[in-house]
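Response to reviewer comment R2.3. The reviewers asked that we include at least one raw input/output pair. We reproduce the pair for 26S proteasome non-ATPase regulatory subunit 9 here without editing.
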Amino acid sequence: VTVSDVQQLVRRKDEIEAQIKACYELLEGQKGVGMHEPLVDAEGFPRADIDLYQVRTARHNIICLQNDHKALMKQVEEALHKLHAREKEKHARDEAEALAEAMSQNQSLPQAFAKVNAVSPGSPASVSGLQVDDEIVEFGSVNVSNFQNLQNIATVVQHSEGRPLSVTVIRGGRRVHVGLTPKRWAGKGLLG
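Raw output as returned:
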């Protein structure tokens, strides 16, 4: 069931309603004879002031069209239920996929042990591409399993002066590798 199927059913419903309305107008044009007015006079003879054939045909058509209308409304209702159920199912499936993807990304990202609070312009850290809010996962040989305090990083930096260090960070939910070479520069420290 698609939206166009439902729209087609609604168009057919509108057509049937227009036909029913036309039949009722025809009955009103026959001296206001509705669906239940008697078609005979007080003496039991057919009324001479109305077109009996036209009235009976209009009444018959109204009854048939109302039955068709009722069946069509049931089809519209079922089609809408199917359409909404499918949309709800699709939405639930999309949500589950997004959750599964988020879970797998979280599981694949290693745990960080430090976060970059500041990067001095022109420093070795800045030149290497390190950014504020990067979460450090590996800094040379230091990682989450052997990190105890910032002194671990300071030791690695002192022993690696002038030599490139492999630094892995999490930036924007993705793992990023940065090549950082600790060295003396115009500012304080070997990293900045």
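The domain at 114-180 is CATH 2.30.42.10 (Pdz3 Domain). The radius of gyration is 40 Å. Further pairs are available on request from the corresponding author.
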